[in-house]
Amino acid sequence: MLLYRLLILLLLPVAIGRLLIRSFGEPAYRRHLDERFGKVRSTQNVDVWLHAVSAGETIAAEPLVRALLARSLTVFLTVSTPAGREAAQRLYGNKVRMAYSPYDTWLCVSFFLSRVRPRLALFMETEIWPGWLASLQQRGIPAALINGRLSDKSYQRYARIRGLIKPALLRFALIGCQSSAHRERFLALGATPQQVQALGSIKFDASLPDDLPVRIQEKQSTLGAAPLFLAASTHPGEDAQCLEAFKILRQSFESLRLVLAPRHVTRAQSLLEEAQAAGWRACSTSDPCLDQEVDVFVLDEMGQLLTWYGLASLTFVGGSLVPHGGHNFMEAALVGCPILVGPSLYNFESMADAFLTERAMIQVSGSQSLASEAAKVLSEPDRAEALRRKALAMVRQETGALERTIRALQEKGLLGPTEQDQS
Question: Is 26 a catalytic residue?
Answer without folding.
Answer: no
